[in-house]
Amino acid sequence: MPAMSEPTAQRVPMLEMRNVTKTFPGVKALNDVSLKAWGGEVLALMGENGAGKSTLMKILSGAYQPDAGAEILVEGQPVQITDPIAAKKAGIAIIYQELALAPNLTVAENIYLGQEIRSGGLGVDRRAMAEGCGTVLERLGAPFGPKTVVGTLSIAEQQLVEIARALHAKSRILVFDEPTTALSARETDRLFDLVRQLRSEGIALIYISHRMAEIYELSDRVSVLRDGTYVGTLEREGLSAESLVKMMVGRDLSTFYKKEPNQRAQDSARGEVIFQAIDLTDGGKRVKPCSFELRRGEVLGIAGLVGSGRTELARLIFGADPKKGGEIRLEGKPIEVNSPQDGIDHGIAYLTEDRKALGLFLDMSCGDNINIGVIQRDARRGGILDLARAWKRAETAFQSLRVRAASPLVPVGTLSGGNQQKVLLSRWLEIGPKILILDEPTRGVDIGAKSEIYRIIDGLSRQGIGLIVISSEMPEIIGTCDRVIVMREGHIEGEVGGETGLDITQENMMRFAAGSAAHAT
């Protein structure tokens, strides 16, 4: 990484936000926050969900107005950002996690959206627009042309269109909000190269991410918010996981993984085999015949590289995808699971990795999301629902899982990722599962909420529920699981922990995942 020139008193920040406070009815989301970003640097902005990052960026984008007394300066000059158009004129652009493009229009039409070049009459001069954005696409190394329809592009390519639109508008301050969430490893590397290129061109970049590895890879400085206040800024040479976590949540990294030595295998009442998969397969398409067992109260991890078949195996167990062969046994008895309802009826619950698309009803309230799986319990004679009973159930779930929301009436789509995950988890716990499958349980969740989810996992295992945890984060697998099976190319390559004699380490798991497990230790 090329060295960045040090900010000095003589060097004017590209962006300076001073004394920013934002009050909503009954809530102070930001309290006297100040922030500086220099041209030619990547400033990472970190904090738990709810720390105020999004609110601060919405003020920068013109979506929100701050309380009186706040100042925003661009290259030392005060600017009034009254709306998104004013932000654009000030040279500010934000690339949101959920892209704001018109999929039915071409790349050029999206770049010029709202500022179309007109021909002699009222028509749009599409040829002139295509020519006008060709330079910026070439500058970014785009593998598509200005006439390509955006809906035909991949997520990474659509993201490139957003960046092209920002650069075409001569943006000098570019904010990336969780930009790698939907990208593959190769696409992420390409984005990182682009970020470095933009930094070398003197653009000020603000990078928001929960992923520590990305922060180490890209950032020159890291500023941290906690509970709506500015905590401090670390220079690159002072970065460490311990210092960042302590700044974000006010406690040490060592408190996040509290897994105690597993004694359940020695307890016949809690350690009996509760679930068995025998040669379970989808016909070899994504899952080759897989066999494993799960004990009562055990946390079994499923690790492996992306595409190894982890999620596909979980969907077969739950009945979300049809099995083509094999057998499932629950408490020693064969069961048929041909649909999710079959899975639920047998006490198998599956928390999907994509909670927004496949898990939650985002426009519905938290309470309705929690109760929807057991709504039949609340039906009185005549089909009238006992709303008081449903409300009490939702309130109890809020308290036990520490959901941070004003009440169960709040739409679940307005909650942070961690609180959405806890609402979804509450729904599955209401069915009283014997087996709970958690697929990427902390994806898109801040580090404080991760700690709470780990606490919940440990508590559920102590209640005797058998848990299966699928995760791409090795520290998460190591810190939460009693035993781990590792998948590779659709089959179970090996196992660590338990009675294998192999420690649950990243090295041992990666040897199985890569097919070189002869040297596992």
Count, helices = 17
Structural class: alpha/beta
Radius of gyration: 25 Å
Total E-strand runs: 20
Question: Which residues form runs of ≥5 with pLDDT under 50?
Answer: 1-9, 261-270
Question: How would you characterize this protein structure?
Answer:
- There is one protein chain.
- The chain has helices at about 55-60, 85-90, 105-110, 125-140, 155-170, 185-200, 210-220, 240-250, 310-320, 340-345, 355-360, 365-370, 385-400, 415-430, 445-460, 475-480, 505-515, and strands at about 15-25, 25-35, 40-45, 70-75, 75-80, 90-95, 175, 205-210, 220-225, 230-235, 275-280, 290-295, 300-305, 325-330, 335, 350, 435-440, 465-470, 485-490, 490-495.
- It has about 525 residues and is of the alpha/beta class.
- It has three domains: about 15-90 and about 170-255, P-loop containing nucleotide triphosphate hydrolases (Rossmann fold, 3-Layer(aba) Sandwich), CATH 3.40.50; about 100-170, no CATH class; about 265-520, Rossmann fold (3-Layer(aba) Sandwich).
- The strands form four sheets. It has a six-stranded mixed sheet with strand order 6-7-8-3-9-10, sandwiched between helices.
- Strand 1 (about 15-25) and strand 2 form a beta hairpin.
- Helix 4 crosses helix 5 (about 155-170).
- The protein is globular and about 75 Å long.
- It starts with 14 loop residues before the first strand and ends in a 7-residue tail after the last helix.
- Residues about 1-10 and about 260-270 have low confidence and may be disordered.
